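Next comes a concrete protein, fold included:
___
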Amino acid sequence: MIRSNLGAAHLRAAALSTAIVALAATSALAGTTPTVFIPAASSVGPVTGTPGTGLPGQIWLPPSTGNLAANLTYAASNTANATFLASSVDYPRAGQNSNVGDPLSSFLGNDAASVVGINPATTPSGPLLIRLTGMLAFSVTGTFTIGVGSDDGFDLRLGDTNVSRFDGDRPFTYTYASINITQPGLYPIDLFYWANNSTFSGLELVWDIDDNAAFDPITVPTANLYIPAPSAAGALALVGLVATRRRR
């Protein structure tokens, strides 16, 4: 099916149809969402007045993809084929399609112009590994929802804390987690993604941090996505985003 622009009704339906977080199976009540507490010490500094511009990403072109451990091992053992800047983690852009046989440029959209190392117009969009790292800005505190939509698998970390993951292949589906932030600031983010060599691809990072009662997550704004400052770059391995496949 072709996905159109995200709407609250679509996201509510997705929330009812997908596992909330990888840790949900450990919850005492089936279907409840364990809250993941993000230590204040994970913050690398205060939120500045300058808006973010995106997350640095790396792309690998493996002969095939496996599970999370195998894909992480491949990325650690091989130099990335390309780098790019993810101005917004929403691939392909709403209303677009990206099939495994389509060029990577159809998956990355406008961000394809930032790719260095390969020609995205002639590189297939799968199989792919992508890793995005940088900083995610939280200007408020509280318990919030953060989600990853993916086709296929992913692993999301904030600081040293695993937030959520899906270790396998699937059609485009959202996985949500409840997180608790006790101190505003910039938090290291590491989003690893993979897409196999079948059908469509997709990746999206969403959150719901407003104070109303409705469940209405939106794509995390570019202004909240930061490239690590030089002082923090040594602590953050700048690796890139796994190219996901998704039909939207």
In short: The mean pLDDT is 81. The first strand starts at residue 35 and ends at 38. The helical segments are 8-17, 68-77, 104-108, 230-233. DSSP finds four helices and 15 strands in the chain.
